[in-house]
Amino acid sequence: MPTDRNIILFDLFGVIARHQRPGALDKMAARCQAPADAFTTAYWACRPPYDAGHQSAPEYWTAVLRRLALPVDADTIEDLRLTDIDSWSRVDDRMVAYVQSLRSVAEVALLSNIPPDHADAFLAAQPWLHTLDHLAFSGRINVAKPAPAAFQHSVLALRAAPADFLFVDDRTENVRAARATGMDGHLFTDREGLARAVDIWLRRHDSRV
């Protein structure tokens, strides 16, 4: 049952932050002398446990290198880890400003699929994140979208009802999963479309009380 709260729950990458830096996977493949296509396949195939905090960075990169039948050494792992973090470090400054502006009309929270060491680096580089009402990183809560438990974590952490939330993500499967938990959902394509959707949702939501 909804309360009188308005909570906008944002995805990070592809919404507020930019997708992976172009050429980053090729750069990492070259570092370990692997074919780019094979490296990319291994990178993503091994990723889910790392995103969900079930593997450390060294464990993840060891799995990637072993899948590629490549030598595993600490220097290579650390180079790959740092290059990977940097490749996901860019934000859309206009979206950051828009998200911060919403705090005058709603609670604003974040739910992101991101490994623990990436989350630490992002928090250090983007202090505005600390002004939000709640942060949920998959690597810290040990569950990743689109699993229902990822959304339920934010509901419980904010002591709210699912119907209090508008979830914003650029991936259809995540928006669909949020809606299945009882949240409203918006599939992000651009800032202007999001702003219109948020205005409509706030008006409809505020009419409840």
Structure in words:
This protein has 209 residues and is α/β, with parallel strands linked by helices. 51% of the residues lie in helices and 11% in strands. The chain contains eleven helices and five strands. The chain has helices spanning 24-31, 36-45, 47-51, 57-67, 74-87, 93-101, 116-125, 138-141, 148-157, 172-180, 191-206; strands at 7-10, 107-112, 134-137, 165-169, 184-187. Strands 3-2-1-4-5 form a five-stranded parallel sheet, sandwiched between helices. Helix 7 (116-125) links the parallel strand 2 and strand 3 (134-137). Helix 1 packs antiparallel against helix 5, helix 2 packs across helix 4 and helix 4 (57-67) packs across helix 5 (74-87). The protein is elongated. The two termini are 13 Å apart.
